[in-house]
Amino acid sequence: MLMGRAGNLNQTVLCYHSGMSAILHVKLPAFIAEINDSGIVLSTLEARMEFVIDLARRNIAGGGGPFGAAVFERDSGRLVAAGVNRVIASRCSSAHAEIMALSLAQQRVGGFDLGAVSQPAHQLVSSSEPCVMCFGAAIWSGVRHLVCGARDEDARAVGFDEGPKPSAWAEELRQRGIQVTLDVLRSQAVAVLKDYTAGGGLVYNARC
């Protein structure tokens, strides 16, 4: 199970299997716990994107991957939960920023469906377009709006494999009632990716 609680969020994600000790331990940086309990409100898409790009930069400084994401209440701008990429630190290929942010947001609202009738519309803001895994996660999460900074080709250009995502992926989301906004502060988001690889950051799964 995913460990967390409504209100304040635990910065550690633990998964258990019956009869076994913890088989997955994803520890998020301390600054994520502080941010997630801050009650921050950001009114514009640009401010929200700037926020997640800064998360990515701070994550790199702490030995993490160059991606940040956050779930907001779309209309109020209230931060629900933020996440960063912890693939290398946690030895877990699914520990992408979007997965972390969505998982923590679902724990905060107390349900797996961020699109439930009882919930305000939720928005996922990511410093980069989703990979094929996070594309699927966005669909199942219930978010009503996806906002991206860097493009798929920007991530691929520095060596990351984004997987066999449908070429018309944004339209696929729109057909499911999920609004998509691309290229918000794209150049700033791309700069984070380039800085990461220029600084010797590990590009995992590059062989795929």
Automatic annotation (TrEMBL):
Coiled coil feature spans: none
UniProt-recorded name of the protein: tRNA(Arg) A34 adenosine deaminase TadA
InterPro entries: CMP_dCMP_dom, Cytidine_deaminase-like
Superkingdom to which the source organism belongs: Bacteria
Classification of source organism: Bacteria, Pseudomonadati, Pseudomonadota, Betaproteobacteria, Nitrosomonadales
Gene Ontology MF terms: catalytic activity
PANTHER family in alphabetical order: CYTOSINE DEAMINASE FAMILY MEMBER, RIBOFLAVIN BIOSYNTHESIS PROTEIN PYRD, CHLOROPLASTIC
Domain CMP/dCMP-type deaminase: 43-180
